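Task 17 of the worksheet. Students: predict the tertiary structure of the chain below and write it out as structure tokens. Keep your answer in the requested format; marks are given for formatting as well as content.
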Amino acid sequence: MSAEVIRNLIIIAMMVAATMLTRFLPFLLFPAGKKTPKYITYLGTTLPYATIGLLVVYCLKNINFFASPFGLPEIIAIAVIVVLHLWRGNSLISIGAGTAVYMLMIQAVFK
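Model answer:
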């Protein structure tokens, strides 16, 4: 076998090992009969909101309010997400529709 094939096999093996570790480790650390530690419960309730907040900041960091289109696609998409989420309470619908509206805005309206 060539060195490239061996290198690729090693990379694949490492990816498989990392994936298996991340899938099985929680079951090994927190078995079914054992009480979940308080810090894990705390992280489980706070990290989703922190992650979404981080994504929002990352997505909005390069908006220039002083140049066309003045952040309008982002503002319109955020408004759609907020209204749909308040109306339906479904994250999948609100995020999916907000993404579709944003893509429509940047591809067709504010081209």
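Marker's comment: DSSP finds four helices and no strands in the chain. Residues 1-34 form one domain.
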